[in-house]
Structures are given as C-alpha cells and as structure tokens.
Amino acid sequence: MPIPSLQVPRLQVSGLAVARGDRNVVEALGFAVAAGEILHIRGRNGAGKTSLLEVLCGLRTPAAGTIDGQPDAEHRHWLGHKNALNPALSPDENLRFWCALSGHVDADVGQALQRVGLKAQRHRPCGSLSTGQRRRAALARLLALPRPWWFLDEPLAGLDHAGIDLLAELLDAHGRGGGAALVTSHQPLPQGVAGVRTLELRS
Amino acid sequence: MSAASAVFRRELLLAARRPAEWAQPLVFYAIVALLFPLGIEAHDPALKVFAPAIVWVGALLAALLGVERIFRGDLEDGTLEQLLLADAPAPLLVAAKLGAHWLLTALPLVVAAPFLGIALGLEPLAVKVLTLSLLLGTPTLMFTGGFAAALTVGAQRAGILLPILVLPLMTPAVIFGGGAVRAAASGLSFDAPLYFLGALLALTVTLLPFATAGALRNAIE
Amino acid sequence: MWTWFHQLASPPTFYRFADVLAPWLLGLAALLIGVGVYGGLFLAPPDYQQGDAFRIIYVHVPAAALSLSIYTLMAVAGGIALIWRMKLAEVAVVAAAPVGASFTALALLTGMLWGKPTWGAYWVWDARLTSELVLLFLYAGVIGLNQAYADPRAGARACAWLALVGVINVPIVHFSVTWWNSLHQGASILSVDGIRNPKISGDMLWPLLVSLGGFYLFFGAVWLRRMQNEVLWRERNARWAQQTVAA
C-alpha cells in the first residue's frame, strides 16, 4: 500500500522534558527519527514511556524543550492503550467512522479487516470480541488509512503469537515503504522488523 | 464538515443500538410531569400556576440524566483521544456531538411539551409559549450540561459534583423559560424572556464548544 | 518590567516576594478596616429613612464588591493559566476560590440581615439576589472541581475553564439592578451617574471607601498567603521548598 510522502522527513527532539503530575519523568531528552526508522522506546513500568509518546504525538504539551517536524493530524496514527472501538458497534462500523472522520469515505475497510484476520468477525459488536481480536481491529485502522507516522503505545499487549507476527509484518512493511514508527514496549520487539533503533528510559 | 456529520451520525447510530438508554430521559420526564396532577387535586387552579415550573424543571432533570454519559463512554474506550487528535477542529466535533444529543434527548421533550401543558391545564397561548421556550432553551441546557460533563469526566473523585456544577449554569435558562410561560399565562408580554433565551442560545452554542473542547483536552492529560 | 513578571512566575521567587509583601498588606488592611468601621459605626450620622440599620453597609458593600472582583481576578488568572500554562496562575485560581466564596456568603448573609428590617423579608427572588446566589454556586463548583481531580495541575486547569465560562455572571450581577425591576437599590458609587452626582452623603461615604480599601487589602494579604501555602505543597519535593520548611 503506497504511503503518502512524509511531510517533513525528520522528527527532531531537543531538551525535552515531560511531566506527569507534578514531577518530570523525562529530562533533557534529545533524539531524531527519520523515514524508514522504527524507534523502540523501552523502559520499566512507570518510566514515562506513555507520557513521552503522548507528548511526541501531540496529545500533551511538553514541560520544556522543542519538537521539530511533528506530523499533523493527517500524517499520523496514534494507537494508545485503548483501542478506540465502541463496544456497541462492529469493527466494520467503527473503522468506517474513523475513515469518515478523516474524510476518506471510500477507504477499503473490508480489506484492512481481512488483512488482520477479522473477516469473520467484522460485523459482530466489538463488545463480543476477545481482547486480541479487538487489538487487531485497532491495528486495522492503521491499514485502512495509510499514514507515514505511527505512534504505537504498547501494541504487543493483548496479542497472541499470531498477532505479534502480524504486527511484525505490518511494522516491517511500514518501515520499508518509507514510513516511520515510534513504539513503546517494555518487551523487546519481535524479530523480522528492519531498521529498529532503541531508546532506553531509565527512571 | 464531513467530520462533524460523521460524529453526528455515529451518535444517532449508537442511540439506535441502545434504545433503552436513549428513552430513559423521556420516560423520566413524562413520569415527573404527569405525577404532579396526581399529587394535586385534578382541577385545582394551583396546577395551572405551577405548570410552567413543573414542565421546565422536568426538562432540566431529564437533560441532567443524560449528560453524564455524553463523554464518559468515549473517554473509557479511547475514542475521545482520537477525536481530539483528529484534523477537524475539536469544538466543531463537540458541537456535533451535543447537537445529536439534543436531537435525541431534548427534541422529544419539546414535542411532548404541548401534551403535557394541556394535561396540566395551561391555556393554548401559554402552551405555545411553553413549547417555544423549550425549543429555545433546551439547546442551552444541553450545551451547558455538556460543558459540565467535560469538566467532570476527567476528575477521579467527581461524586455528585456534576449537578452542583450544572445548577448555576442552567439556572438562567430555567428562569427565563418559566418566566416566559408565566407571563403568557397571565396575559403579560412574554417577548423579553424569549429574547433572553434566544441570546443564551446564541452564546452557548457558539462559545461553549470551545470551552468544552478545552476541558476535554485537559481531561485526557 | 516583563522580566520582573517572568521572574515572579517562578515559585521560589514568588514565595519570597509574598513573604515580604503580605504582612504589610495585612497591617494596612487592619488599619483601614479599623478606621472605616469605626467611622461607619460611630462617626457617620444615622440615615433619615433606615436609622442605624443602614450601618451594615460597611460590611455588606465591601463583601459584595469583593465577591465580584475576586471572581473576575480568578477568571483573568485562569485565562493566563490556560494560555501560558503558568503554574503560578493555576495556583492563583485555586487559592482565590474559597476566599471569594466566603465573601459571597458574607454578602448574602449581611444582605439578608439588612433586608429584614428594610424590605420586610430576608430573601426575595429578584435578579440581583438570584444572580449573586448563582455566583456562590459557581464558587462552590470551582472548589469542588479542584478537590475532585487527583492531578492538581489538571484540576486547576479545569477550574480555570469554569472560572472563564462563569465570569459572564459578574456583569449580570452588577447590571441586574438596572436591567430588571429590582428591590435592591441601584449602583450608588460605581456608575457614571454615581461618580458625578454622588447619591450618598459625604460623611457616610468616606468610611465606606476606607472600609472598601481595607477589605481589598485584606483579600490581597489572604490571597498571597493561600498562594504561598499552595505553592509550597505543590513543590514539596523541590529543594527550595524543603529548605523553606526546614528553616
């Protein structure tokens, strides 16, 4: 699937401080991510991975420092701990909503759901799906709307072995296609993903 | 614009999936308004005097019932953070959501108002003014309720804070709404309260979505 | 001048600044309130209509004026907190609310005590009293909202939004006596007409103005102290805070 060209090829961060509550969990952080790179942000629970990713994506503002080249809404995907799937609606309906929200009413939702292995469940309410199936449905959003920047927060959580392999394939294809991804995980990323750099957060 | 209509349609779809949730305020409203005549003697003139207040307070309580749910579900399943990250301006999406809720929760109240007004013994002119006042005032109730809901949805220990917050914000609409109907029932001019309701409508629908979106952004931080 | 403002925004600098200023404000406030209340109670002549009952004006008017001013200041601080994400502005919002609520309650209470002998009723649902009561509920909402949040910064920002939206009530309270038929008397001092042709006699006016000034200074002192407390609590893990407490 062709990926639209990166808006700005590099995400550059310098002197970044991230606060959670009244404390700074991250201080004076500097790094850069370019096209084709997968940045794995790792650290123990509570090290500040999620807060950092939220700041990088634009959900929260940093306590200090600058972020250059932050992608705008059209060029990024955020996959948080929660799947953004309403339990009363089916994966198909949920995905169609997210596509309509970005103005892409003609996106191929069926193919995205098939790719993640949810063809049989696509019309069942998300509340009746298992955790792993819901996570896959959330991943389908990344496929239905091709965007260059992926911000994935603990994407491995809730996935079985097949799901982890699927994620590895998607990440690899994304990186090879010229996209970039920032992934937080306290586990190591699965094998088979090219171009992974690691950023370790110590609390 | 298509983003706003997508949000709008989704709210309607969700209500269709869970009709009991949607019908609850309407049933509550009918119970409140119709139980009053049972408490007072059937042809007691006092009923006519209190009718505007009964209908208006019933509308306020019914609106209050539905308001808590407006953003909580979206916060819990992660939809809220996606909406705030989207390209479309957050205040527009908030307005679309609250507009859909008005259609689902308040419009039935407005449609039911004439029947309730007559059942409570109001004259035809007063019934007309009652319906008009509800039409003008319920959007204000919905949008201020949405703002209060946005403030409390991010709070961990909210408890009964929502009604306390909502009360000062909704009071003006209830005062003017009830006042308009009372004036019409007494044969006095009812223009001024209706104009005030209109002014409140214009202010809340245009400005409150910005404050609501800001409060929601604060809630997900 | 802006650098001074910027420096003041730093919590330790503000703490030291407030430590120096607050006692002076408090002392001056005590003096002015003392003089004003003495003048009002003993020096001003009795009113030809109300007799001595009018003397409650020397507490009622400052309390009411402060209830409005404090909410306005809260809204301004809230705007600053939201636009520039200034920690100190957030603290200012949260610290002001209980003081404003107290003054509002005092204004309502003294108004009720004044209303009984003059209007014959403790309470009427006219525009001014109702909107002042709404103001009390707004203050209560701000206080409650702050307590409901676990994260103090997010809570303060939510309060800032509520302060901003509710500030529309302040001009409503002030102009309610001109816009609607109200039992409450019109603006005697703070109106264009009131300044040109004073409606209140001079020997009754000066204790009121002195008392008013004293109350404002008192609020300033109390606000600074409350902000100091709040700042110290929020920054309790910082070195400057621990050194201050240890000293």
How would the blueprint of this fold be written?
The complex is a heterotrimer of chains A (203), B (221) and C (247).
Chain A: E1 10-20, E2 23-34, E3 38-43, H1 49-57, E4 64-68, E5 76-79, H2 91-101, H3 109-115, H4 131-144, E6 149-153, H5 161-176, E7 180-184, E8 196-201
Parallel strand pairs in A: 3-7, 3-8, 5-6, 6-7
Antiparallel strand pairs in A: 1-2, 1-4
Helix pairs in contact in A: 2-4, 3-4
Chain B: H1 2-17, H2 19-39, H3 45-67, H4 69-77, H5 79-85, H6 90-119, H7 124-153, H8 161-185, H9 191-219
Chain C: H1 2-8, H2 11-43, H3 57-84, H4 87-119, H5 127-148, H6 152-166, H7 169-179, H8 192-196, H9 202-234, H10 239-246
Helix pairs in contact in C: 2-9, 3-4, 3-6, 3-9, 4-5, 4-6, 4-9, 5-6, 5-7
- Order of SSEs of chain C, N→C? HHHHHHHHHH
| CATH topology call of the largest domain in chain A | Rossmann fold
Counting helices, strands and paired strands, the structural category of chain C is mainly alpha
Which percent bin holds the helix content of chain A?
Answer: 25-40%
Outline:
Chain B has 221 residues and is mainly alpha-helical.
Could you explain the architecture of this structure?
The complex is a heterotrimer of chains A (203), B (221) and C (247). Chain A is built from five helices and eight strands; from the N terminus they run E-E-E-H-E-E-H-H-H-E-H-E-E. Chain A is an alpha/beta fold and 203 residues long. Chain A has two domains: 7-71 and 148-203, P-loop containing nucleotide triphosphate hydrolases (Rossmann fold), CATH 3.40.50.300; 86-146, no CATH class. The N and C termini of chain A lie far apart (39 Å). The mean pLDDT of chain A is 88. Chain B has one domain (2-219). In chain B, helix 2 packs parallel to helix 6 (90-119), helix 3 runs antiparallel to helix 8 (161-185) and helix 7 (124-153) packs antiparallel against helix 8. Chain C has 247 residues and is mostly helical. Helices cover 79% and strands 0% of the residues of chain C. Chain C has helices spanning 2-8, 11-43, 57-84, 87-119, 127-148, 152-166, 169-179, 192-196, 202-234, 239-246. The longest helix of chain C is centred in the first third of the chain and has 33 residues, at 11-43. The two termini of chain C are 31 Å apart. Classes of the chains: A alpha/beta (203), B mainly alpha (221), C mainly alpha (247). Chains in contact: A-B, A-C, B-C. Chains A and C meet through loops of A and loops of C.
